[in-house]
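Z., the sequence and structure:
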Amino acid sequence: MNLNPDRIKLSRDEKGIHVLLDGQQVPVDKIALAFPQSDPDRYVGLLDADGHEIGLIEEPKRLDKASQELLDQLLREIYFVPTILEIRAVESRGTSSQWEVMSDDGEKRFRIPDREALDGSDAPAITIIDESGKRYLILDYWELRREDREAIRDLLPDKVVRSRARRGVRTNR
């Protein structure tokens, strides 16, 4: 269902996010850009706790100011990917591990479920997805300090290891 941005309001309270539809508060469990790569500003989907679509907001810039500010904040929380600048500690517990890092967004602590949470498909960059689905980015594994690289050596995706051979670069920092 298409939601007319002139006729809805978004709000957040201690119980979560809500959309006011036809005078009724409807809980929103998830917000997602419909076309995050090709048209990120045009459509925003609202989903309920079961993953069913509540509706699609076309042109969210037409929302009232408070709703638009809340939506912008929520989208930043979801889609902003901090870049890891330094790895302070990685503590393994079974297959999972607890990370403490310094990022371009400050100090972060998160847990990953297993080494599959590290994606090296754009090696030597690594995308890390924590247990809650939040993403983090290491721009170039080989540019990290030696101590940082050693902290995650056992978790490395194979493509990252192979990327060093392709580069022909030695990094001894």
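The longest strand covers residues 84-93. The chain has three helices and 13 strands.

Let me know what you think.
H.
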